[in-house]
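$ run holo --ligand "fe (ii) ion" --emit C-alpha coordinates
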Amino acid sequence: MAQRPIINYFLPPRIEFGVGAIKNLGEHVKSFGGKKPLIVTDEGITKAGILAKAIQPLSEAGIDHVIFDAIQPNPTDLSTIEGMEVYLANGCDLVIAVGGGSVMDAAKAIRILATHEPPLEPYYADVGGFERVTSNLSPLICVPTTAGTGSEVSQGAVITDTSHNTTNRARKRAIVTPHNMASLSLLDPELTVGMPPGLTAATGMDAVTHTIEAYVATRYHPIAEGVALQALKILAMNIRQAYHHGDDIEARGQMLMASAMAAFSFQKGLGAVHSLAHQLSTDAPIPHGVANAILLPHVMEFNLPHAVDGYAEIAAALGINTADMTKEEAASVAIDEVRLLNKELGMPEGLGAAGLNRERIPKLAQDAMLDHCYKFNPRPCTETDMRLLFEVAF
Ligand SMILES: [Fe+2]
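-- output --
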Protein backbone atom coordinates (compact mmCIF):
# COMPACT_ATOMS: atom_id res chain seq x y z
CA MET A 1 0.00 0.00 0.00
CA ALA A 2 2.84 2.37 0.89
CA GLN A 3 4.16 2.23 -2.66
CA ARG A 4 0.92 3.19 -4.40
CA PRO A 5 0.82 6.60 -6.05
CA ILE A 6 -1.49 9.20 -4.51
CA ILE A 7 -4.99 8.73 -5.92
CA ASN A 8 -7.97 11.06 -6.39
CA TYR A 9 -11.51 9.70 -6.42
CA PHE A 10 -14.52 11.74 -7.53
CA LEU A 11 -17.98 10.81 -6.33
CA PRO A 12 -21.04 11.95 -8.26
CA PRO A 13 -22.85 14.93 -6.75
CA ARG A 14 -26.58 14.80 -6.10
CA ILE A 15 -28.69 12.04 -7.67
CA GLU A 16 -32.46 12.25 -7.28
CA PHE A 17 -34.07 8.92 -8.11
CA GLY A 18 -37.70 7.88 -8.30
CA VAL A 19 -40.87 7.72 -10.34
CA GLY A 20 -42.05 11.30 -10.87
CA ALA A 21 -38.67 12.90 -10.06
CA ILE A 22 -38.95 14.94 -13.27
CA LYS A 23 -41.74 16.99 -11.68
CA ASN A 24 -39.14 18.65 -9.44
CA LEU A 25 -37.10 19.99 -12.38
CA GLY A 26 -38.34 23.58 -12.10
CA GLU A 27 -37.55 23.81 -8.40
CA HIS A 28 -34.08 22.44 -9.00
CA VAL A 29 -33.35 24.99 -11.73
CA LYS A 30 -34.36 27.72 -9.28
CA SER A 31 -32.15 26.26 -6.56
CA PHE A 32 -29.16 26.65 -8.88
CA GLY A 33 -30.16 30.25 -9.60
CA GLY A 34 -30.98 29.37 -13.21
CA LYS A 35 -33.18 31.89 -15.04
CA LYS A 36 -32.88 30.67 -18.63
CA PRO A 37 -31.84 27.06 -19.11
CA LEU A 38 -30.75 25.66 -22.46
CA ILE A 39 -32.43 22.28 -22.94
CA VAL A 40 -30.21 20.02 -25.02
CA THR A 41 -32.08 17.10 -26.57
CA ASP A 42 -32.81 15.33 -29.86
CA GLU A 43 -35.78 15.18 -32.19
CA GLY A 44 -36.67 11.63 -31.14
CA ILE A 45 -37.14 12.74 -27.54
CA THR A 46 -39.32 15.62 -28.67
CA LYS A 47 -41.45 13.40 -30.94
CA ALA A 48 -41.84 10.70 -28.27
CA GLY A 49 -43.43 13.29 -25.98
CA ILE A 50 -40.67 12.91 -23.37
CA LEU A 51 -39.47 16.49 -23.70
CA ALA A 52 -42.96 17.74 -22.80
CA LYS A 53 -42.59 16.00 -19.43
CA ALA A 54 -39.48 18.07 -18.73
CA ILE A 55 -40.93 21.34 -20.00
CA GLN A 56 -44.11 21.15 -17.95
CA PRO A 57 -42.42 21.56 -14.55
CA LEU A 58 -40.34 24.43 -15.96
CA SER A 59 -43.47 26.21 -17.19
CA GLU A 60 -45.19 25.59 -13.86
CA ALA A 61 -42.25 27.19 -12.09
CA GLY A 62 -42.39 30.16 -14.48
CA ILE A 63 -38.96 29.46 -15.97
CA ASP A 64 -38.22 30.64 -19.48
CA HIS A 65 -36.15 28.18 -21.54
CA VAL A 66 -34.53 27.60 -24.93
CA ILE A 67 -34.56 24.24 -26.73
CA PHE A 68 -31.66 22.93 -28.82
CA ASP A 69 -32.78 19.60 -30.29
CA ALA A 70 -30.28 19.15 -33.13
CA ILE A 71 -28.20 16.44 -31.41
CA GLN A 72 -27.63 13.34 -33.54
CA PRO A 73 -26.35 9.94 -32.36
CA ASN A 74 -22.55 10.06 -31.96
CA PRO A 75 -22.63 13.86 -31.60
CA THR A 76 -20.05 15.82 -33.55
CA ASP A 77 -17.88 18.74 -32.48
CA LEU A 78 -19.81 20.81 -35.06
CA SER A 79 -23.15 20.21 -33.33
CA THR A 80 -21.66 21.28 -30.00
CA ILE A 81 -20.45 24.55 -31.55
CA GLU A 82 -24.00 25.11 -32.83
CA GLY A 83 -25.37 24.43 -29.35
CA MET A 84 -22.88 26.85 -27.80
CA GLU A 85 -24.01 29.57 -30.21
CA VAL A 86 -27.65 29.05 -29.21
CA TYR A 87 -26.65 29.13 -25.52
CA LEU A 88 -24.72 32.41 -25.89
CA ALA A 89 -27.17 34.12 -28.27
CA ASN A 90 -30.02 33.58 -25.80
CA GLY A 91 -28.13 34.51 -22.64
CA CYS A 92 -28.63 31.07 -21.09
CA ASP A 93 -27.23 30.36 -17.63
CA LEU A 94 -27.80 26.62 -17.06
CA VAL A 95 -27.82 23.46 -19.20
CA ILE A 96 -30.41 20.69 -18.96
CA ALA A 97 -29.70 17.51 -20.93
CA VAL A 98 -32.78 15.42 -21.67
CA GLY A 99 -31.84 12.28 -23.57
CA GLY A 100 -29.44 9.38 -23.86
CA GLY A 101 -25.66 9.34 -23.84
CA SER A 102 -25.26 11.31 -27.07
CA VAL A 103 -27.39 14.16 -25.74
CA MET A 104 -25.74 14.25 -22.32
CA ASP A 105 -22.21 14.10 -23.80
CA ALA A 106 -23.03 16.89 -26.25
CA ALA A 107 -24.52 18.97 -23.43
CA LYS A 108 -21.30 18.62 -21.44
CA ALA A 109 -19.25 19.83 -24.44
CA ILE A 110 -21.65 22.74 -25.11
CA ARG A 111 -21.30 23.76 -21.47
CA ILE A 112 -17.51 23.74 -21.73
CA LEU A 113 -17.51 25.74 -24.98
CA ALA A 114 -19.83 28.36 -23.45
CA THR A 115 -17.11 29.44 -21.00
CA HIS A 116 -13.89 28.16 -22.59
CA GLU A 117 -12.24 29.30 -25.82
CA PRO A 118 -13.50 27.16 -28.77
CA PRO A 119 -12.82 24.81 -30.57
CA LEU A 120 -12.94 21.57 -28.53
CA GLU A 121 -9.52 20.39 -29.72
CA PRO A 122 -7.43 21.37 -26.65
CA TYR A 123 -9.93 19.85 -24.22
CA TYR A 124 -9.79 16.23 -25.45
CA ALA A 125 -8.21 13.78 -23.02
CA ASP A 126 -5.65 12.54 -25.56
CA VAL A 127 -4.00 15.97 -25.78
CA GLY A 128 -4.01 16.78 -22.07
CA GLY A 129 -7.45 18.40 -21.88
CA PHE A 130 -7.85 17.31 -18.26
CA GLU A 131 -5.66 20.25 -17.23
CA ARG A 132 -7.45 22.81 -19.42
CA VAL A 133 -11.09 22.47 -18.39
CA THR A 134 -11.70 24.69 -15.36
CA SER A 135 -14.56 24.83 -12.87
CA ASN A 136 -15.86 27.97 -14.60
CA LEU A 137 -18.98 26.22 -15.92
CA SER A 138 -22.72 26.73 -15.71
CA PRO A 139 -24.76 24.23 -13.65
CA LEU A 140 -25.68 21.04 -15.54
CA ILE A 141 -28.78 18.95 -14.86
CA CYS A 142 -28.87 15.56 -16.56
CA VAL A 143 -32.15 13.76 -17.18
CA PRO A 144 -31.35 10.38 -18.77
CA THR A 145 -34.02 8.80 -20.97
CA THR A 146 -32.12 5.55 -21.55
CA ALA A 147 -30.51 3.19 -19.04
CA GLY A 148 -26.98 2.41 -20.14
CA THR A 149 -24.42 5.07 -20.90
CA GLY A 150 -24.50 6.53 -17.41
CA SER A 151 -23.22 9.85 -18.72
CA GLU A 152 -25.33 11.49 -15.98
CA VAL A 153 -22.75 10.43 -13.37
CA SER A 154 -19.58 10.15 -15.44
CA GLN A 155 -16.70 12.53 -15.98
CA GLY A 156 -16.56 11.74 -19.67
CA ALA A 157 -18.08 13.19 -22.83
CA VAL A 158 -17.45 11.28 -26.05
CA ILE A 159 -17.56 13.49 -29.14
CA THR A 160 -17.06 12.61 -32.81
CA ASP A 161 -14.20 14.84 -33.91
CA THR A 162 -14.67 15.83 -37.55
CA SER A 163 -11.59 18.07 -37.70
CA HIS A 164 -9.35 15.18 -38.88
CA ASN A 165 -6.53 16.76 -36.88
CA THR A 166 -5.26 13.46 -35.51
CA THR A 167 -6.34 10.91 -38.15
CA ASN A 168 -7.77 11.10 -41.63
CA ARG A 169 -11.26 10.10 -40.50
CA ALA A 170 -13.88 11.40 -38.09
CA ARG A 171 -13.03 9.75 -34.79
CA LYS A 172 -14.58 9.52 -31.35
CA ARG A 173 -12.56 11.36 -28.72
CA ALA A 174 -13.26 11.85 -25.04
CA ILE A 175 -13.23 14.91 -22.83
CA VAL A 176 -12.60 13.65 -19.31
CA THR A 177 -12.66 15.93 -16.29
CA PRO A 178 -14.35 15.89 -12.88
CA HIS A 179 -15.90 19.23 -13.90
CA ASN A 180 -18.00 17.27 -16.43
CA MET A 181 -20.00 15.73 -13.59
CA ALA A 182 -23.61 16.87 -13.61
CA SER A 183 -24.54 19.25 -10.81
CA LEU A 184 -27.67 17.12 -10.41
CA SER A 185 -28.95 13.96 -12.07
CA LEU A 186 -32.69 13.40 -12.13
CA LEU A 187 -33.35 9.68 -12.58
CA ASP A 188 -37.00 9.11 -13.34
CA PRO A 189 -37.75 5.53 -14.51
CA GLU A 190 -40.97 6.70 -16.18
CA LEU A 191 -38.94 8.53 -18.85
CA THR A 192 -37.35 5.22 -19.93
CA VAL A 193 -40.58 3.20 -20.21
CA GLY A 194 -41.10 4.00 -23.90
CA MET A 195 -37.67 2.71 -24.99
CA PRO A 196 -38.09 0.00 -27.67
CA PRO A 197 -36.64 -3.47 -26.88
CA GLY A 198 -33.65 -3.07 -29.22
CA LEU A 199 -32.55 0.15 -27.54
CA THR A 200 -33.20 -1.33 -24.09
CA ALA A 201 -30.93 -4.27 -24.98
CA ALA A 202 -28.18 -2.14 -26.53
CA THR A 203 -27.99 0.45 -23.76
CA GLY A 204 -28.34 -2.28 -21.12
CA MET A 205 -25.41 -4.20 -22.61
CA ASP A 206 -23.38 -0.98 -22.60
CA ALA A 207 -23.93 -0.83 -18.83
CA VAL A 208 -23.05 -4.54 -18.46
CA THR A 209 -19.83 -3.88 -20.39
CA HIS A 210 -19.01 -0.92 -18.12
CA THR A 211 -19.20 -3.12 -15.01
CA ILE A 212 -17.18 -6.02 -16.45
CA GLU A 213 -14.46 -3.82 -17.96
CA ALA A 214 -14.25 -1.65 -14.83
CA TYR A 215 -14.09 -4.60 -12.45
CA VAL A 216 -10.98 -6.04 -14.11
CA ALA A 217 -9.40 -2.69 -15.13
CA THR A 218 -5.89 -2.33 -13.74
CA ARG A 219 -6.28 0.83 -11.65
CA TYR A 220 -6.59 0.63 -7.86
CA HIS A 221 -10.17 1.60 -7.00
CA PRO A 222 -11.83 -0.69 -4.45
CA ILE A 223 -14.87 1.63 -4.17
CA ALA A 224 -15.55 1.27 -7.89
CA GLU A 225 -15.05 -2.51 -7.74
CA GLY A 226 -17.74 -2.87 -5.08
CA VAL A 227 -20.15 -0.70 -7.04
CA ALA A 228 -19.41 -2.55 -10.30
CA LEU A 229 -20.30 -5.95 -8.86
CA GLN A 230 -23.54 -4.71 -7.29
CA ALA A 231 -24.48 -2.90 -10.51
CA LEU A 232 -23.86 -6.07 -12.52
CA LYS A 233 -26.02 -8.12 -10.13
CA ILE A 234 -28.91 -5.68 -10.59
CA LEU A 235 -28.44 -5.53 -14.37
CA ALA A 236 -28.35 -9.33 -14.69
CA MET A 237 -31.52 -9.65 -12.62
CA ASN A 238 -33.48 -7.04 -14.59
CA ILE A 239 -32.23 -6.73 -18.16
CA ARG A 240 -34.34 -9.56 -19.60
CA GLN A 241 -37.48 -8.30 -17.89
CA ALA A 242 -36.91 -4.71 -19.10
CA TYR A 243 -36.30 -6.07 -22.63
CA HIS A 244 -39.40 -8.28 -22.77
CA HIS A 245 -41.72 -6.13 -20.63
CA GLY A 246 -40.77 -2.52 -21.22
CA ASP A 247 -43.66 -1.22 -19.16
CA ASP A 248 -42.41 -2.91 -15.96
CA ILE A 249 -41.57 0.24 -14.00
CA GLU A 250 -39.73 -1.72 -11.30
CA ALA A 251 -37.37 -3.32 -13.85
CA ARG A 252 -36.93 0.05 -15.61
CA GLY A 253 -36.05 1.70 -12.31
CA GLN A 254 -33.55 -1.02 -11.42
CA MET A 255 -31.90 -0.69 -14.84
CA LEU A 256 -31.69 3.11 -14.54
CA MET A 257 -30.10 2.94 -11.10
CA ALA A 258 -27.70 0.15 -12.09
CA SER A 259 -26.57 1.92 -15.25
CA ALA A 260 -25.71 5.02 -13.19
CA MET A 261 -23.79 2.78 -10.76
CA ALA A 262 -22.02 1.09 -13.69
CA ALA A 263 -20.90 4.45 -15.03
CA PHE A 264 -19.65 5.51 -11.63
CA SER A 265 -17.64 2.27 -11.47
CA PHE A 266 -15.81 2.94 -14.72
CA GLN A 267 -13.93 5.75 -13.06
CA LYS A 268 -11.63 2.80 -12.36
CA GLY A 269 -11.03 2.51 -16.09
CA LEU A 270 -12.55 0.61 -18.99
CA GLY A 271 -10.76 -1.68 -21.40
CA ALA A 272 -10.21 -2.90 -24.94
CA VAL A 273 -13.93 -3.37 -25.66
CA HIS A 274 -14.49 0.38 -25.47
CA SER A 275 -11.35 1.25 -27.48
CA LEU A 276 -12.59 -1.05 -30.25
CA ALA A 277 -16.24 0.00 -30.00
CA HIS A 278 -15.35 3.70 -30.16
CA GLN A 279 -14.08 3.10 -33.73
CA LEU A 280 -17.28 1.50 -34.94
CA SER A 281 -20.19 3.87 -34.70
CA THR A 282 -18.41 6.46 -36.84
CA ASP A 283 -17.51 3.96 -39.58
CA ALA A 284 -20.48 1.60 -39.54
CA PRO A 285 -24.06 1.95 -38.41
CA ILE A 286 -23.36 0.05 -35.21
CA PRO A 287 -24.68 1.73 -32.04
CA HIS A 288 -22.24 1.90 -29.13
CA GLY A 289 -24.08 -0.64 -26.98
CA VAL A 290 -24.41 -3.15 -29.82
CA ALA A 291 -20.70 -2.83 -30.64
CA ASN A 292 -19.83 -3.43 -26.98
CA ALA A 293 -22.15 -6.42 -26.71
CA ILE A 294 -20.64 -8.11 -29.79
CA LEU A 295 -17.04 -7.42 -28.76
CA LEU A 296 -17.34 -8.18 -25.04
CA PRO A 297 -17.13 -12.02 -25.06
CA HIS A 298 -14.23 -11.93 -27.54
CA VAL A 299 -12.24 -9.47 -25.43
CA MET A 300 -13.04 -11.51 -22.29
CA GLU A 301 -11.67 -14.61 -24.06
CA PHE A 302 -8.52 -12.62 -24.95
CA ASN A 303 -8.17 -11.32 -21.37
CA LEU A 304 -8.97 -14.61 -19.63
CA PRO A 305 -5.43 -15.65 -18.62
CA HIS A 306 -4.95 -12.19 -17.04
CA ALA A 307 -8.36 -11.91 -15.36
CA VAL A 308 -9.33 -15.31 -13.95
CA ASP A 309 -10.05 -14.07 -10.42
CA GLY A 310 -12.03 -11.07 -11.66
CA TYR A 311 -14.12 -13.04 -14.15
CA ALA A 312 -14.87 -15.69 -11.50
CA GLU A 313 -16.41 -12.91 -9.37
CA ILE A 314 -18.22 -11.61 -12.48
CA ALA A 315 -19.77 -15.07 -13.01
CA ALA A 316 -21.28 -14.97 -9.52
CA ALA A 317 -22.56 -11.42 -10.07
CA LEU A 318 -24.19 -12.62 -13.29
CA GLY A 319 -26.23 -14.98 -11.12
CA ILE A 320 -24.34 -18.24 -11.70
CA ASN A 321 -23.87 -20.62 -8.78
CA THR A 322 -20.09 -21.01 -8.84
CA ALA A 323 -19.79 -22.82 -5.49
CA ASP A 324 -18.62 -26.10 -7.02
CA MET A 325 -16.43 -24.59 -9.72
CA THR A 326 -12.73 -23.81 -9.81
CA LYS A 327 -11.91 -20.17 -10.48
CA GLU A 328 -10.90 -21.09 -14.03
CA GLU A 329 -14.22 -22.81 -14.63
CA ALA A 330 -16.22 -19.92 -13.18
CA ALA A 331 -14.28 -17.37 -15.24
CA SER A 332 -14.96 -19.33 -18.40
CA VAL A 333 -18.67 -19.70 -17.55
CA ALA A 334 -18.89 -15.89 -17.17
CA ILE A 335 -17.97 -15.59 -20.85
CA ASP A 336 -20.57 -18.21 -21.83
CA GLU A 337 -23.19 -16.29 -19.85
CA VAL A 338 -22.40 -13.04 -21.70
CA ARG A 339 -22.78 -14.91 -25.02
CA LEU A 340 -26.12 -16.32 -23.87
CA LEU A 341 -27.32 -12.89 -22.76
CA ASN A 342 -26.41 -11.42 -26.17
CA LYS A 343 -28.39 -14.16 -27.86
CA GLU A 344 -31.43 -13.72 -25.64
CA LEU A 345 -31.38 -9.97 -26.23
CA GLY A 346 -31.26 -10.37 -30.01
CA MET A 347 -27.79 -8.88 -30.51
CA PRO A 348 -26.25 -9.45 -33.98
CA GLU A 349 -23.88 -12.44 -34.11
CA GLY A 350 -20.89 -10.47 -35.38
CA LEU A 351 -19.66 -7.09 -36.53
CA GLY A 352 -20.13 -8.15 -40.16
CA ALA A 353 -23.79 -8.93 -39.58
CA ALA A 354 -24.08 -5.58 -37.80
CA GLY A 355 -22.82 -3.70 -40.87
CA LEU A 356 -19.02 -3.38 -40.65
CA ASN A 357 -17.02 -3.44 -43.89
CA ARG A 358 -14.19 -5.92 -43.29
CA GLU A 359 -11.71 -3.90 -45.35
CA ARG A 360 -11.87 -1.12 -42.75
CA ILE A 361 -10.43 -3.31 -39.98
CA PRO A 362 -6.70 -2.46 -40.34
CA LYS A 363 -7.41 1.29 -40.17
CA LEU A 364 -9.84 0.90 -37.26
CA ALA A 365 -7.30 -1.23 -35.36
CA GLN A 366 -4.69 1.48 -35.90
CA ASP A 367 -7.05 4.16 -34.55
CA ALA A 368 -8.10 1.99 -31.58
CA MET A 369 -4.53 2.44 -30.32
CA LEU A 370 -5.19 6.21 -30.07
CA ASP A 371 -8.12 5.61 -27.69
CA HIS A 372 -7.26 5.76 -23.99
CA CYS A 373 -9.60 3.03 -22.65
CA TYR A 374 -7.44 0.00 -23.46
CA LYS A 375 -4.61 1.33 -21.32
CA PHE A 376 -6.39 -0.12 -18.26
CA ASN A 377 -7.20 -3.45 -19.94
CA PRO A 378 -5.95 -6.37 -17.79
CA ARG A 379 -4.02 -7.78 -20.74
CA PRO A 380 -1.76 -5.35 -22.62
CA CYS A 381 -2.91 -4.84 -26.24
CA THR A 382 -0.95 -4.20 -29.41
CA GLU A 383 -2.30 -3.01 -32.74
CA THR A 384 -2.09 -6.62 -33.96
CA ASP A 385 -4.24 -7.71 -31.01
CA MET A 386 -6.80 -5.04 -31.91
CA ARG A 387 -6.90 -6.24 -35.50
CA LEU A 388 -7.31 -9.87 -34.45
CA LEU A 389 -10.08 -8.93 -31.99
CA PHE A 390 -11.96 -7.11 -34.77
CA GLU A 391 -11.45 -10.18 -37.00
CA VAL A 392 -12.72 -12.76 -34.49
CA ALA A 393 -15.70 -10.52 -33.66
CA PHE A 394 -16.47 -10.02 -37.36
FE1 LIG B 1 -19.93 2.65 -22.96
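-- notes --
The chain has 15 helices and eight strands.
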